[in-house]
Amino acid sequence: MKEITLEMAEKMLEAAERWAALAGYPSSIAVVDKAGAVIAMHRMDGAGPMTTDISINKAFSAVYSGAPTLMLARMIDPRMMGETLGSGGLGLLTQARLRLMFIPGGNPIRDGDMKVIGGIGCSGIPAGVGEISDTTAVQAGYAAIYEEYD
Questions:
Q1: What does the pLDDT look like over 41-53, one tens digit per residue?
Q2: Is 1 inside any structural domain?
């Protein structure tokens, strides 16, 4: 797998949407390529209007940083400042024309050689309301393509 195709993106959207539906929260899910350009995006019926841009920017952020947005969120957590991991995280806040999202729910997509080839982002599932989150929805989307394509 060297790049994310539309077929792959659609499979990821379907899997992530199933998890969002299980959580009971309409969400927006976006899949981007290795440059952060949108390949496919879907806003479920009833999802909030801001979820569209947030899901795209979460996917972009995962590609840009090469890390899940959960890790970016931890990097700017004041409890992580100092000599620990993330001590320079605040410097990221002004990068990428202010498109970086420091909110969990974005994952990079990697090929078999661990190169980032895209990203997936979800927005719409409130944090702390159950076992399913934006992060678990994107992980389901991310996992959906690996059995068939890798």
A1: 999 999 999 999 9
A2: no
Sign of dihedral through CA atoms 90, 96, 98, 100?
A: negative
pTM: 0.87
**Pairing label, strands 28-33, 106-110:** unpaired
Q: What is the CATH number of the domain that holds 43?
A: 3.30.450.150
The C-alpha atoms of residue 137 and residue 139 are separated, in whole angstroms, by 5
38, two tokens: 């949108």
Residue 109: Cβ within 10 Å count: 28
Which residues, including other chains, have CB under 8 Å from residue 37's CB and lie 6 or more apart? Answer: none
For residue 72, give the 3-state DSSP assignment.
Answer: helix
Give the strand pairing for 28-33 and 38-43: antiparallel
CB atoms within 10 A of CB 147: 7
What range defines the domain where residue 73 resides?
Answer: 6-149
Tokens of 42: 């879907």
